[in-house]
Amino acid sequence: MRGGILYTTSMLSIVPTPLGNLQDITLRALETLKSADFVLCEDTRRTQVLLTHFGISKPTVRYNENDPSSVRRCLDLLRQGKRCALVSDCGTPCISDPGWKLVKEAAKEGLPLTSLPGPSAAACALAGAGFTGGAFTFLGFLPRRSGKAAKLLSGAYAQKHPVIVYESPFRVVKLLELIAVTLGENTPVVAAREISKIYEEWLRGTAREVADNLGKRKKVQGEFVVVIGLPETEEKAYEEPDLPY
To answer: By CB neighbour count within 10 A (0-12 exposed, 13-18 middle, 19+ buried), where does 147 fall?
Structure first.
């Protein structure tokens, strides 16, 4: 331990990176990147921008979750005792981003690994939504088929907790319309766009209102996190009481 900060000797470190604003990176993430032998990344070009910004010079290796040979190559580095930092383009790896297959195989083989806390678009959006805290359901990106997507939404919403969904700017209006049809037009939603970036925007209202708002725009840009809340009457009914510890 140096300066009150614990440094790990794990071979594989899962390192969250900023959603947009580079100043959101943690000190521990920077130290881990600096001490790594290799940085395993979703896109080497995007990761290089981050490394260069902080004056870090490390070899990068592209990690392609859909290519078994890529997974094996990264595993081989870990087997050789190399310290590898796993990053995605932004946010936390393995959360609707590549990484889980490598983590699963490394854990199977008993290779030392650790996961650093840090930026997560889902947690950030939920905190800013103003819906009931505590339990929530995270669905990531929904299936393209509307029938499957509607079934997932209905099942998750039936748990009476906020539901979090990721969506691209090209499909977000369709998502909101699906929410309106499946869960009801007055279902409260918060659509967080471009979290932590220059054009960050929070759209609040019913599913129909937010869908109409975005539908009137000439062009919708930026990645979205949509948080689906409960009607106010149900939200109060399902607030969990404080429990003694």
So the answer is: exposed
Q: What does residue 226 show for φ and ψ, rounded to 5 degrees?
A: -105, 120
Say whether pTM exceeds 0.90: no
Instruction: Please give the Cα distance from 212 to 190 (Å, whole number).
Output: 14
Q: How many residues appear in the chain?
A: 245
Residue with tokens 């220059």: 198
pLDDT in tens, 119-149: 999 999 999 999 987 899 999 999 999 999 9
pLDDT band at 231 (very low <50, low <70, confident <90, very high): confident
**The pair of three-digit structure tokens given for residue 212, joined into one six-digit string:** 């109409």
How far is it, in rounded angstroms, from Cα 166 to Cα 208?
18
CB atoms within 10 A of CB 211: 24
Q: Is 46's pLDDT higher than 50?
A: yes
Q: Which string of b and e fits 13-35 if b means at least 16 CB within 10 Å?
A: bbbbbbbbeeebbbebbebbbee
Question: In this structure, what token pair is assigned to residue 217?
Answer: 């725009």
CB 93 within 8 A of CB 23: no
Residue indicated by tokens 């429990």: 243
Tell me the C-alpha distance between 30 and 118, whole Å.
11
The gap between the terminal CA atoms of the chain, to the nearest Å, is 31
